[in-house]
Amino acid sequence: xxxxxxxxxxxxxxQDDGPHPVCSIDYPKExxxxxxxxxxxxxxxxxxxxxxxxxALCLRFNPANYTTWWFRRQCLASLSISxxxxxxxxxxxxxxxxxxDLMLAAKLGGTNPKNYQVWYHRxxxxxxxxxxxxxxxxxxxxxxxxxxxxxxxxYIATVIAEDAKNYHAWSHRQWILKAINMESKWNAEIxxxxxxxxxxxxxxxxxxxxxxxxxxxxxxxxxxxxxxxxELSFSICKAEQxxxxxxxxxxxxxxxxxxxRLIGTTPEFASLIGVSEKALEETKANFExxxxxxxxxCTNLIAAHIDILEIKGDKTSIASAIEFxxxxxxxxxxVRKKYWKLRAQQLEVVTK
Amino acid sequence: MEDKRLLPMYEPGTxxxxxxxxxxxxxxxxxxxxxxxxxxxxxxxxxxDHASKLQLVRLGLLSNDHSTTIQLLRxxxxxxxRRALYKKDVQKLAGSFVxxxxxxxxxxxxxxxxxxxxxxxxxxxxxxxxxxxLEACWTNVxxxxxxxxxxxxxxxxQLPHCAPTYAAVNVLCIIASCDSEEHPQSSQLALDLxxxxxxxxxxxxxxxxxxRMGDNEKGSMACGFRMHHDGEIDVRATYCICSVASxxxxxxxxxxxxxxxxxxxxxxxxxGFGGEPFAEAHGGYTFCALxxxxxxxxxxxxxxxxxxxxxxVALRDWLVHRQMxxxxxxxxxxxxxxxxxxxxxxxxxxxxLGLNGSDLPFDSGVYEDCHDSCGVTRRKSxxxxxxxxxxxxxxxxxxxxxxxxLLCAQDVNGGLRDKPSKSRDFYHSCYNLSGxxxxxxxxxxxxxxxxxxxxxxxxxxxxxxxxxxxxxVKFMIRHFH
Lengths: 352, 481
Hints:
The structure holds 2 protein chains of 2 kinds. Chain A is mostly helical.
């Protein structure tokens, strides 16, 4: 609650949504008052400490008010007086302001990690620092910026520890890694991912992150064949832990498909896909032996097999693929009956 | 008589299609809990005892004690949805709604569109009030006039933002296209507002462009958009802009440049789309990407979606695997939980693809003119037996999806929800009903069963690209194109 003396010189402005607005909210009194002052402050474009405090108060009630966040950044920029402010294409925020606002964002984001504005605020604050790392070298600025980066990566890890699939957290993490583009960070990220997959091999966000990291966040850097083999080995190993799991199979097939597009006509690829198919069949056989269950129940394994057979493209492979698709349709994956019927039909056309 | 439409191939409560696992993890535990909370709802009505049936009748879920079809609680949903549309002096939303104070046009859209699908549009007075409220949410860039552009904001005095702009324009389209005899004032006001603001919207949209070097072999330029000045860039913005711009006919070459390349880059190795390149494939973003692509390819004169560079096969495969074998509803990402809102995001995306179970190419002419027929009328298929199980021509299990919405997503007091353990809200009410509408209407003959009770549940046909009723899209074509 802000003491009224702080704004003794300000006349609050009430919200003007017309005489009979619909969808009106019965605002909490404290919020309504604070907003009244904020409207007046924003009309004056007063970018002061007290304005900053006011935004923090309003954001406590509605952390999704993107306008208030924007005005807050205007205040921070003005308060961080720097001669370089004029040349820089980024808004320059003083370090102490950045640190303080990251804390505020963490506090406001803590209860609702799905809020876009909170995460965007963090990104906006940090963008300048990362540009410093790229342009400078061996200066204090870089040291400070690196520290911020490490702390941010740590912070995101704590959010992920609470909610391992938080979409915003992962997006933000991808943004930092790509922005700083440091080999040591990319390598450390693989360790981080592996740890998460140890906790939960079904964490699809972690699988997606692995694809991102191994491609260094660029579509123009596909796997070299050795890397592909490594990734295939990794994913099938994880698939073996629980062949029902969709995530590793999708990854597995995607690696193969990428190689197919690059080197699909080469003997290296023929060897790669042959080895992969064998590994898949072994996984299925092991599963049947250990669980005494029908391997066809692992519909994600079978779906991967169908994809592989389709890529192989020879008569026998296509015939097997059709058989599998028909079994999934009629018995094992009935929710996708229409889809498997279509797959079988399309494969039959290929045979002709 | 056998109730074909309700549970064609599953026995009630059978665990046969529950998810299986070898290794127990957080993911598998949460999935088990979700299946457990849905299980009680999957009962065979005919096997219930008399007292239970009477209970369902009392709640409005059954029309009488001989019926075996779960009803859509039209009246109760109508009452619940209207809460967002009362005038200030009549009724306000509770203080806890302050967290949605930057989403007021959204709340108006979610509720009005849902009411529209229920054929329960509010009265003229309310519609006039809505138009005025939206006008109050208009903000121009220079603070003086529209000469530097403007857009709708989440609330009065806030900055213009792509999402509430999308919502506001959809609302205005709904109202503008209302019958001018029943709604003389509101329809005119809405149409006027749209006409007055369309140029300013284009100016503002152009200012949100973020060009960059594309991450593709050609090295061509890609262009994403911010959701608002100094805001986040993601594929939702592209969709919101494409939707509004195509309805108002301001989708210019200049605006479109690089859009396609940006969207295509958001497709992941899984086949779905994320919010930004390399972000995880997600139902909501996938819908946005696909709907935007459909608009862009059509406007740019491409015959097939594939010409955009998107991998349609991978996309199709990813989408169909979002349907949960046991629950019947859709998940938003692999290895995550079912949620009623994905009934539209994923179901609608599948509808946009215009896929069906027959061997037709992806763009077989159903969306030849996606503004017009939208495939509401049935396409002739060689294999007419396909219709026997009543499951329709979309490439997902429509009966099971509808079952999820009717049995698990409905709140007995009105409104719809994510899943049984969650509370109802306007957003989930909108998207559950939108998904249900798409499943019932797109590429399906209005499935006249021998059961009148099923037909009572059929909603108005929502256009799977814009998510407003098809006839309202047609109106916009007539007036702006």
